[in-house]
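TL;DR need structure tokens for one chain.
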Amino acid sequence: MSSGTGTALVFGGSRGIGAAIVTRLAQDGFDVGFTYVSRPDSAEALASAIEPIGRKVIAIRADSADQTALQAAVTQTVAELGTLDVAVVNAGVLRPGTVSALSLEDLDLMLDVNVRGVFLAIQAAVVDMRDGGRIITIGSNTAIRTGSQGSSIYAATKAAVAAMVKGIALDLAPRAITVNNIQPGPTETDMTAAMVSRLAGIVPLGRVGRPDEIAALASFLASRESGYMTGASLTIDGGYVL
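>> reply
TL;DR here they are.
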């Protein structure tokens, strides 16, 4: 894989951190496919914003809990853009609830998308990935420190991703495909818009992160320079877990 050229697929790329990663990879020289499950307006706006960069981009509707849809997203990306060099698994859901209040539906949804969906996305991507490729998952610093009531299952799913990455990194090492996990802390996205002031007060650096900062780390992990790093979980959270 040459640095800054090739094909990337971002699962869950239409908004927030995912959109920032799609944009950064296009700026790095990748043609990019990305999936979304709702808000086609956001997906279309992102694709239009990337066109001036001069890279090909395709938006694909795909539910990250649906194995067939994930496989179809890979197939379409490869058919239109070429064999995969990079896959980023960003899709995830948060449904807060204490142990006595969390519904079975929300429990199953978080397990389906945040754990099962991550595995299925990676499984689908590696079939059509070049040897020497890059897989990047977007976890959460809650895998290390939960910090608030009602987040036990979300935190458990993100801890599962960190453990999963280690095992898959070993599985794919013979193909020189690296597998690494980014664990953002509080970051300014649609999900946190109403909580930014409160969240900033609990971060040692005194602010929340920006999606482009997470994207910059993803850019490194997608590059040739990261080739000796695999199975790692990298926390980027302003010192929150210290």
